[in-house]
């Protein structure tokens, strides 16, 4: 499994997931501030955050301590924007497929209550269907997005295969982790609302990064259980750096021959 650390049978580390982003680096609060600014940039801001999450996941899976991640920098805005395009597109496709199904299921629950002449039962069924449906949709969409983040390419077939394999091997743990993430994020957002509501934005970033950290933990567990590693397509910047290294090596070899 390459350089990826594995932790057989390890418990999910929720405290680390919520604390690593601002608690493990001297400039963690700066990263939080810059990432929060992205929320206020229309359209492209969320794409940049997706690109940043992709680089974060890539770095975390190679860290045995699951603590080290790259700093956020607007100097790499275009590079992060490009990296975030593929997970956005695959997530959009997944949403277009599953959200209408969820909406139809909610209306079906209401219709059942109406047919039984019991609006209260229909409303209760609709709420239950919506709650469990949201969990199910996210349990599918998150691995799809994660695959695109790690693979750095548009590969719908690969994303589907990974998601099916992921759910087969660690699906139960993933659903539990998603439920715990939701339960822990709610009070975090509430505390943000108490800070003149403005605190909701950085609180949502902390929750977002915690979710990414949990997905990394689940991915490592998936690899440890025999799952297939996601093969990354190099970014343009990585290709340029590799080309420069190769050119430098050729120059050094030429100088030695002379």
Question: How would you describe what is shown here?
Answer:
There is one protein chain. The chain has 258 residues and is mainly alpha-helical. It has one domain (14-257). Helix content is 76%, strand content 0%. It is built from 8 helices and no strands. The protein has helices at residues 14-23, 28-38, 44-60, 77-115, 119-151, 156-194, 200-224, 236-257. Helix 1 crosses helix 7 (200-224) and helix 2 crosses helix 7. The longest helix has 39 residues, at 77-115. The radius of gyration is 21 Å and the shape is globular.
As an assembly, this protein is: single chain
Report mean pLDDT, rounded to a whole number: 88
Domains (count): 1
N-to-C terminal Cα separation, in Å? 42 Å
How much strand content do the residues show? Answer: under 5%
* Radius of gyration, whole Å: 21 Å
Helix content: over 70%
> Count of DSSP helices?
8
Give the helices and strands as they follow along the chain: HHHHHHHH
Question: What is the total tally of β strands?
Answer: 0
Secondary structure class reads mainly alpha
- Major sheet: size, sense and barrel closure? none
Shape call: globular
Uncertain spans, ≥5 residues at pLDDT below 50?
A: 1-6
Biased composition (Acidic residues): 247-258
Transmembrane segments: 32-52, 85-115, 121-141, 162-184, 190-210
Keywords: Membrane, Transmembrane, Transmembrane helix
Organism: Urbifossiella limnaea
